[in-house]
Design goal:
about 200 residues; mainly alpha; 2 strands; about 0% strand
Length: about 200
């Protein structure tokens, strides 16, 4: 994503526990700027972009999807009272936007003599094998108990630390470590993953 949303927003974030200041108006215009929005986007963009990429196969579409979700977040910025819920708000906006796009999608079909196949990238492996491994992994993850599944997704798909995962789920770091260890053990023993390896 090359152009950040709202580049004129200030870097200063409102201190936690205090009321957020009212949005300022840009000189000569009626569009509000929020002091901490730009700093939030700069800090969280890589993580949120990974989430967007997991929702769509095309990296350019993922950037557009994130841009749209951030625009929706910017509009609602002064109504989001809990700063810790910002990632959840953006992720929900990503999911809702992607669902809307999928529902509105118009599929055009064109008859052609040969199917267009992308050129294989050297050293990238067989795309069919990668997809089979990806699908098998997701099936194995969905077999995990809900709590273990949530911890595995937060740790390895959302790339949160053990401490961040513990904070999100409201448990201790030790609980995260032991639950993730048990979950990884179950994934190693999953017969479907053994066949794919």
């Amino acid at each position: 994503m090359t152009a950040p949303v709202c580049t004129s927003a200030s870097d200063a974030a409102a201190p936690s526990g205090r009321t957020r200041p009212h949005p300022r108006l840009r000189s000569g215009g009626g569009t509000p700027t929020y002091p901490s929005f730009a700093s939030y986007v700069r800090a969280r963009q890589p993580v949120l972009l990974r989430t967007a990429r997991s929702l769509t196969a095309n990296p350019c579409d993922a950037e557009d999807l994130l841009q749209t979700a951030l625009a929706k977040t910017y509009v609602a910025w002064d109504r989001i009272e809990d700063q810790r819920a910002l990632d959840g708000y953006v992720r929900r906006a990503l999911l809702n936007t992607r669902t809307s796009q999928w529902r509105k999608r118009r599929v055009d079909e064109f008859a052609c003599e040969e199917l267009p196949e992308p050129e294989p990238v050297p050293g990238d492996g067989d795309p069919a094998e990668r997809q089979a491994l990806h699908d098998a992994m997701w099936r194995a993850v969905t077999k995990l108990p809900a709590r273990q599944r949530a911890m595995v997704v937060l740790r390895y798909y959302e790339d949160l630390s053990e401490a961040q995962t513990a904070e999100v789920l409201g448990v201790s770091v030790g609980t995260v470590k032991s639950a993730v260890s048990r979950a990884l053990g179950k994934l190693r023993e999953d017969p479907e993953l053994t066949l794919v390896r």
